[in-house]
Design a protein that fits this description.
About 50% of the residues lie in helices and about 10% in strands. By secondary structure, the chain is of the alpha/beta class. Helix 12 (about 265-280) links the parallel strand 5 and strand 6.
């Protein structure tokens, strides 16, 4: 925990002065005030983070964290765990959904193995950050130890530090891969919120009614057996989380510590962001949320984070696809602030008086 605390001490809040400078320029632009809605707020937030009115998002990265889950033993997923390593190879070969969307957004994709039940070749071009080969079945006991939870978060932080040291990262996206991981993500928001599971539990990969009942029962059992403490984010992650969820939390904290805006994907990535912001509230100022997931528990996560997503595309894939789609709007917001002329710059009498 000392290592995490040292990283938390590195977080410098965005500049309120630069954000106000941005808002003032937006108010003076040659158009009705507020007429570009959410893009204006995004652009002002970015200006506060970057401390400039001309934000350039030249290096965009999406890190997809992968891990397997012991809770799959409870029959909570439509697909077998063997799909996780197969998809990792697909990401590396550039044939997955995230690769296509990221290329369009001008973002690079890197995979991080936090806990896949597979032995990847040491020279495979991924982040080799495996804690171990999958979590334990949290319906029968903790998913991981507290030390392992810390390791998973630190792995995400170290990834951001490494990437940023190689070349400055201007915008970071987070994504996930892990069969069964909507179950720990649901357990996490249930632990923090105390809301009934029938309000929070979705169908994940498309399970039927019987599968949904098994999923709810498994989460109920896990919460009862483990009693995660909602006041202790590390305890929640350790008791009912996943290694890749810890990695996703670390990415958010690492981004904040390096002054990088970070956009999270859907349900699982937001579970990681939630753990991050419960552990490190200042990280929330660097967080953008990309889209509304079809998973029903996602809106409760977003409400707790007090973040409004940029898109609603009925996505439920993960991988970082929503983050890639949102990156295009975030990039657009930077040009709204810097490139739209003010009334004074175009010599138009200010129609606003």
């Amino acid at each position: 925990m000392k290592r995490i605390n040292a990283v938390l001490d590195r977080i410098v809040p965005p500049s309120a002065e630069w954000r106000e400078k941005a808002n003032e320029r937006l108010r003076q632009q040659a158009r009705p005030a507020g007429s570009l809605g959410v893009l204006e707020d995004v652009s002002a937030r970015l200006a506060g983070i970057a401390r400039t009115l001309d934000v350039r998002l030249e290096r965009k990265m999406i890190v997809t964290c992968a891990g397997d889950h012991g809770i799959c033993d409870e029959g909570v997923s439509l697909f077998p765990a063997e799909v996780t390593p197969q998809m990792v190879y697909n990401f590396i070969n550039g044939g997955a959904s995230i690769n296509v969307l990221a290329r369009h957004a001008g973002a690079a994709v890197k995979v991080a193995d936090l806990g896949v039940n597979w032995d990847f070749e040491p020279d495979l071009p991924i982040f080799h950050t495996k804690i171990r080969k999958g979590t334990d079945n949290f319906a029968r006991g903790p998913a991981m130890s507290r030390d392992e939870a810390i390791q998973s978060i630190m792995a995400g932080i170290d990834i951001v530090d490494q990437l940023h040291a190689e070349a400055p990262v201007d915008l970071l996206g987070t994504g996930d891969m892990g069969i069964g991981n909507t179950t720990p993500s649901t357990a996490i928001i249930a632990a923090f919120s105390g809301l009934p599971l029938d309000q929070l539990t979705g169908r994940g990969t498309g399970i039927d009614d019987e599968g949904l009942q098994r999923k709810v029962a498994a989460i109920e059992k896990g919460l009862a057996v483990n009693q995660p403490d909602p006041r202790d984010a590390l305890d929640v992650l350790a008791k009912v989380g996943g290694f890749e969820i810890g990695g996703l939390a670390g990415l958010v904290i690492g981004a904040a510590a390096n002054g990088i805006p970070v956009v999270c994907d859907g349900f699982i990535a937001t579970a990681g962001a939630l753990v991050a912001c419960e552990l490190a509230p200042p990280a929330r100022d660097f967080l953008f949320t990309s889209h509304y997931s079809v998973e029903v528990g996602h809106r409760y996560m977003l409400s707790r984070l007090d973040r409004e997503p940029l898109l609603d595309l009925k996505f439920r894939l993960g991988e970082g696809t929503g983050a890639a789609a949102a990156m295009e709007l975030i990039d657009m917001a930077t040009r709204v602030l810097a490139d739209i002329k003010t009334f004074e710059e175009v010599a138009i009498q200010d129609a606003q008086g």
